[in-house]
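Appendix B. Extra example for self-study. Work through it before the problem class; the solution is given directly after the inputs so you can check yourself.
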Amino acid sequence: MLVRPATSWIVPAALVGVVVFLVVGSLDSAVFAQQTVSGLANGGIYASLAVALVLIYRATEVINFAQGALATFTTYVAWQLISWGLSYWEAFVATLLIAFVGGFVVELIAIRPVERRGNQLTVVIAAIGLLILVEGATGWIWGNGIKFVPSAFPARFYHLGGATISLQDLGTIGVSLASVVALWAFFQFTKVGLAMRAAAVRPEAARLVGVRVSWMLSLGWGLAAVLGAVAGLMAAPNPSYLLQPTMMDGVLIYAFAAAVLGGLESAFGAVVGALLIGALLNLLQSYVHWVTPQLLLPVAFVIMLVVLLVKPSGLFGRTRVRKV
Amino acid sequence: MRPSRGTVVGIAVTALVAVAVALLPFGLSNYHRSTGATVAVYFVAILALNIVTGYTGQISIGHGAFMAIGGYATAILTHDHGWNDIATLPIAAIAGFVAGVIVGLPALRFHGVYLALTTFAVALAVPQLAKNYSDFTGGTEGLALPVHSGLWLYEVGWAVAGVMLVLAWLLLRGRTGRAFRAVRDSEVAAASSGVTLAVYKTVAFGISAAMAAVAGSIYVLVNNFVNPDVFGLTLSLYILIGAVVGGLGSLWGILVGAAFVQLLPNALTTGHVVSSQAVPVVFGAVVIGVMALLPRGAANLLGLALHFGSQDGQHSDTPLGTEGR
Amino acid sequence: MTKRMKAALALAALAVMAALVSTAVAASTATPGVTAKTITIGGTFPLTGPAALYGVIPKAENAYFQYVNAHGGVNGRKIVFKYYDDGYNPANTVPLTKKLVEQDHVFAVYGSLGTAPILASRDYLNKAKVPQVLVATGDSYWATQYKKYPWTMGFQPDYPGESRVYGQFIQSKVPQAKIGVLMQDDAYGENYYNGLVAGLGDAKSKIVDVEKYDATQTDVSSQIVKLKAAGANVVALFSLPTQTITALAVITKIGWHPTVFINNVSGSPLFMSLAQKAGANVDGDITATYVADTINNPSSSTAKLYKSILSKYDAGADPNDSNNLYGVASAWTMVKALTQAGKNLTRQGLMDALTHMDYVNPFLYPGLKMKTTPTERFPIDQQILEQYKNGAWHPFGHVFGNAR
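Solution. Structure tokens for the complete assembly:
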């Protein structure tokens, strides 16, 4: 498939159109504004997990079905540390470290042996096995009740026109944008980041110049687990999610859709996709009569499918020639 | 073509297994008969998944959705229209075929992870649709069907499984089967040797979904009840696990896979909280272990032991095909 | 066919019939699940999955049975309670129920939880004439469809009955109410909504907006925003615990101060404290209850007994989770019925005992009576309203009865 530069203005134009629509609608109606803001807040949660999905996809070309379950598990670790008496920020830092080591080890034990003998799809199946295992283990260890994890942000609310937004929601969106910038800087400017990119795109060439490709993949999983832990820690204090073993199940689905919308390879695209999905679903639900709550999920998938069929590389993905 | 020694042994073992399956219920309690019927349900569902994933190389995480189509066809026809429940099976198969073709169409453009995500979406969306159109489906309160005895369920379940196995065998040994495998092993090579990719991929999805729908019908009869929770994501994942554990692309492994997904949770669930929590942990670990150690599944071991493995040279080292990387 | 062959055939047929009759007789004399020393009962519960918050209930029930067993059991028999995890999936409930009946040979299926799981298993159990009693769901079917399903019975007040109390209260005490309803978009929510409308009577027009959510949706903020926009000053939450917590937190978050009614199954003090931690201001919220108030009366004999049973037989259980109190109250009722069914225990005897209740349950709210007849099968149809203040529910007003 060839890149068609003639249509490259469509995506930016459509995005500008959407933003104008949201702003005008919000200025016109306080309810519209509140629905948009609440939707964007949800989108912030989807975005933080979608970035982790993109990171693993870029490093290994695999969709990590276990990303949400791993995120929930690490959030329970944070809860455990806090209940053992650590302060929030101590627990926060410790959890990210544990998540990094955990992600690294999981790749080493569960994914690498599969990858060595199989292919992309056997790895997907192994990731599904991991999802089942980790979610089950979470319930086994900590039970199925709701646990409470405090927020990283103080309970503060801001009024923008007719809408109210919490500092926590703003912070969540901010954190996902910050992780995009951090990832970009990491891949662009650090030696390890460059090596990881090389290992993903041209493993043979990378090997020749001395990059240890397999370690780069483990590193990718470790970093993705850190991003997942951040996502979990953002979601758990949010009243719309709450810490339970299934906390990230719903988030994962919308994060998939967001990552696909963004083109699977672009962290920034995933964040934009997540915010769009969050806001549009909330508005559809509020204003379009036939979009019943049951149809929300199917509608999200139809949007994803349509984008895929029209623009297979997503909104921000680079079109690539498929290898056979 | 003169039957090879492998084929003769294969037929003999098949006949032996068939006789054993037919005689088994008479030695079982009523409860174990209905459990056996559920094994038959998984057998048919895994067989169905094998056609599209094992033989044609197209991953599907959404076969629970096709089961839902068949299950609802049977439930609605018997509950609302007074049909005999066995008579609904052909309708379920047709409905499943149509659904499979519809899902198979995007599969023409999506590969690898995109197809995985699409079918995953289907698995989640179909139960939501069933909930939304509750006038037909009964919503979460579902539809209740007549209760059958364990023996009846076992016999019907395995009779259907036998028919499906024979149909699958006839399909896969002929021209269509060769075309499916060609698509799996290399799309480019298949296309250049005259296999119409679009047709075979869609047909594979359609036939597979039709079989899954029949499995869904039997599932509903075994439970004499249907609601959207019955066809949740877990069911789709169980079918995939069963297929993987048994070995994709192997008819023999199906029995192993079906028994595994039905009997293991049953054995672990003996009334303690801890043990039912252990089911997913064990399942997940087994899936990863199988993928790492025996990418061709348990059937590989069985095949090696019985010297079946290379009957027609159909086994490539990667059962899911080489698509994608 | 020779005469001898005919005679042999007739003899064989007779032998078969005799064998059948003798097994039938044997079956009718010994009640399944009952021995000289034990009574085996069993149930299915969501120990995992979407409704796992209710997974504590069978453990609390088992704790009460252990307590009874330690004090001599029921008419000299000890209760054996087997419970299985169905994950709230009817496709698991049915095989597990068959397992209870055909493998474990339970005397009765007791306490099984969830509307769909009960609907899925009741045909089988009624066909097999196995009692399916004190089921943990508030649909009214269990009481109203007794002619078709005589072996199935409920325990708690039915959902429409509960929300009818809210409707009556609003109608008489909140004249300028503008009611917004958040309901789950299924039979559960529908049941509550219908009861509310019935209780409001002529004041039905006070409902200004109804917003629905799907059970798989955890985020209900969009619905709450719409209720506020519709100008409601009273909110009725007919939702499951997770969505209730979300709704309460979102109401506070968007700076709204309506009077909130919370349905009983989501109003456990445990859930209220979680909502508070999630940022909700829940003071002044109203719910209805029928279980004893062990929190404001910690020194009552009921509260002491309840806590000692939990601490001895259900280590780690949170006494503030009213699901535990629910379990103990339900188990008390089962023990009472088994006792009344007598030493010569039969399944019919159990149903007779359950359809002739007339007593006070110490784990229910003082003054509430459990009363049933063969045609009036709601065991509990009285409730009291309570309001949340300073970290606890406080009952107020009078006991509402359900005139049917």
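Self-check: Chain C touches chain A through 38 residues (CB under 8 Å). If your reasoning did not lead you there, revisit section 3.
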